[in-house]
Amino acid sequence: MKSIYNKWTVTTAVTLTLTFLGYSCKDSFLEVLPTGQITGAQLATKKGIDGSLVAVYGQLNGRDQRMASPSNWVWGSIRGGDANKGTDPGDFSDINPIQRFEYLPSQGVISDKWQGNYEGVARANSVLRLLPQTTDMNDTEKKLAEAETRFLRSHFYFELKRAFNNVPYVDETVDYNEGIEQVKNDQDIWPKIESDMKFAYENLPETQASVGRANKWAAAAYLAKIYMYQKKFTEAKALYDLIIPNGKTSNGKKYGLLPRYADLYRPASDNNEESVFAVQSASGTGSVNNANPEFDLNYPYNTGPNGPAGCCGFFAPSFELANSYRTDANGLPLLDKSYNLPANALKNDMGIKSDVAFTPDAGNVDPRLDHTIGRRGIPFLDWIVMPGYDWIRNQPNAGPYITKKYVWYKADESLVDKSSWTPAYTAMNYTIIRYADVLLMAAEAEIEVGSLTKALEYTNIVRKRAANPEGFVVNAGKPAAKYVISEYSASAFATKDAARAAVRFERKLELAMEGHRFYDLVRWGTADKEVNDYLKYDSQFLPGALGGAKFTPNKHEFLPIPQGQIDILGSDVLKQNPGY
Questions:
Q1: Which H or E run includes 40?
Q2: What is the pLDDT, as a whole number, of residue 30?
Q3: How many Å apart are CA 5 and CA 18, to the nearest integer?
Q4: Per-run averaged pLDDT (10 residues), the chain, 580 residues
Q5: What confidence score (pLDDT) does residue 293 get?
Q6: Which regions of 59-172 does DSSP assign to beta strands (E)?
């Protein structure tokens, strides 16, 4: 979505400047209004409000602060063990200490996460300040605009809260000229995040004229997610009990799962029944800013005409993640982590050049493996059989795998914007919340305060879709690997502990490479063990990238407050997170 006014500069914790300069000068004819600036009076109209609200939506993907994107491919997936940074160690080296948990408060990518989300907050606050001044909107129209805006502000603060934990909360009532510099980060902002999303849930319509706008059920799903992060399982379950039978998309489709897993990541499937809330994208508009900029670095390397984009080899799926897709003789995952044992680990082509013969793994695997991870000997979408080494920029630094999700198919080439430095900007939406995520969180809530039988039901809905043979990756008309997957029996959910283990692992498999994993581990309280197990395992194969890396509990659950923000406001206003 395009902003109707210039991008505002964020220079302090939540700085937004919309100041109108006045001069006391006798020669009034010398007073010239600045050009290219829209006044408050111009924005305080129905059209102005709508344009300003579109600008809030427009900030969802982070714009020029790529690390503010809700895809969280660095913050959620790389830190969570889904993936390694990949590419060459010298390319975008600011990410190297992130994957090693050696980052400092001065890290630029951390500042990007902060600034990009506070820019969204600032834009939302601007709309909320303008609404009371608007005279050509009735109360119903104003309430709808307020509900959409508060939904978005809640999203931006949710991103900030789970990334940094202690952040300052500034709303539309704070004077940006005087007083903002005294807003401290010493208050729990969960109640504020909840309040905004509750308002959105209570006041948004079930459907919207524009499909990309938030609706009532998107707010309900997001509110339930906010509850889950606070372990408010009873409140979350009450919402899931409403969402699952009644929820619908903003374009009126009843929530459900797409029959074929791979279709989730194709532009023709945008705004489907599984899309609860998504960042909208379009190609061919004259600007790649309107396309999907989330993953322009994360395409396979050196593909030539046989693959998409050809750059830059970031976001390489981890060995640990690939092994996780191993299934037993009954088609169930190896929840005891025996998938990392030599007898079970996925066969790969590490160190094997593309002109040397290689036969892919012949054992049982979950079919979602080959929709998530590009590996040698398996078709890469509808391009060619992935050749391995030749498509990896630096295998000793990245490993043998490449990402598949949100990479464009050859058949979808007409929906790719090729006007920038790389043809990696597509008309494919990025889905912030999808229905499978909702079902698996609902299963979690049921385990804690509801029914293990219901948790089993929700989990098996997700697994049943994964088992659909019509969605398997095929090669020469046959399944490309030995796909063996089944639903869980009641005995697998006989106890809370067993059910928790199954559901948590299902989230790992279903939502891999979608930015959820690290945040899930933190809210479950298992980040210390899980992240360090991944680092220990993958460092055997990538000693240069990961050797000696370690997650430190009670420190690395949250990012440090950017040092530049503390330098501006002072350490008496912004307190640094523990351990930094």
A1: helix 40-43
A2: 61
A3: 11
A4: 33 34 45 66 90 96 89 98 97 97 96 97 97 96 98 98 97 87 95 98 97 98 98 98 98 98 95 97 86 90 93 97 98 98 98 97 98 98 98 97 96 90 91 98 98 98 98 97 98 98 98 98 98 98 98 98 96 97
A5: 83
A6: 83-86
* Torsion angle (degrees, nearest 10) of CA 45, 50, 56, 59: -120
- Whether the Cβ atoms of residue 260 and residue 473 lie closer than 8 Å to each other: no
Token code pair at residue 206: 């079930």
SS (H, E, C) 352-389: CCCCCCCCCCCCEECCCHHHHEECCCCECCCCCECCCH
Give the separation between CA 531 and CA 555, rounded to whole angstroms. 13
Token digits for 439? 């079902």
Whether pTM > 0.85 for this model: the answer is yes
Q: Which residue has the tokens 């039978």?
A: 245
Helix residue spans in 173-290 (DSSP H): 190-203, 216-229, 233-246
Classify 544 as helix, strand or coil. Answer: helix
Please tell me the distance from the alpha carbon of residue 216 to that of residue 527, in angstroms, as a whole number. Answer: 33
Distance CA 553, CA 471 (A): 40
Q: Cα–Cα distances in Å, from 189 out to 120, 122, 158, 196?
A: 16, 16, 9, 11
The reply to whether omega before 312 is within 30° of 0 (cis) is yes
Helix axes 108-130, 139-164, angle to 10 degrees: 160
- Residues near 524 by Cβ (< 8 Å), separated by ≥ 6? 504
